[in-house]
Design goal:
The protein is mainly alpha-helical and 165 residues long. It contains 4 helices and 5 strands; from the N terminus they run αβββαααββ.
């Protein structure tokens, strides 16, 4: 029996699940960037800059900074998954950040000091894919949540567990 002060049941909306999955993936990728064998030429892992020779999965150029950004971005996604609105913002804003990073990667000299992250062509196109994918998830799953999830806003619970309002 619900009381007027009881909380509504936790609803695991698709947008929250997507934020959690994306966050865990970023966290995992960030950690994998520090593991020799998964990251080739690990002995050439630099703190920052285009001269880092380490390659995650032998394809994506990484540095300590690059890996830490993925770890922080992953933790943010996991934290955002606690609320649907935060999850949607994480996916949308994160997608925009990755699209901006894609454009940045296309415009810079990959062998110059402006490539401080570092980025290579594979990183650029992965950032494009992540940006588009995260935005698509944020938009489509937020719309889906609005049409399918029950709302508990502005409702008062009666003692017999029926909703008023």
């Amino acid at each position: 029996m619900a009381t007027p002060h009881s909380r509504p049941p936790r609803i695991h909306t698709p947008v929250k699940i997507a934020s959690l999955i994306v966050g865990v993936a970023f966290l995992l990728v960030g950690l994998l960037g520090f593991i020799p064998g998964i990251t080739s030429d690990h002995d050439q892992l630099a703190g920052t800059g285009h001269d880092s020779g380490a390659m995650l999965f032998g394809v994506f150029q990484v540095s300590v900074l690059h890996n830490l950004v993925h770890v922080v971005f992953g933790l943010a996604g996991i934290a955002a998954a606690r609320a649907a609105s935060a999850a949607a913002i994480y996916l949308l804003l994160g997608g925009l950040i990755y699209l901006a990073l894609w454009i940045f990667g296309l415009l810079i000299d990959k062998t110059g000091p402006s490539n401080f992250i570092p980025l290579n062509t594979a990183d650029d196109w992965l950032h494009f894919t992540l940006g588009v994918g995260m935005i698509a998830l944020g938009i489509s799953l937020t719309r889906a949540s609005r049409t399918t999830a029950p709302s508990y806003d502005n409702e008062v619970t009666r003692g017999d567990d029926r909703r008023i309002g």
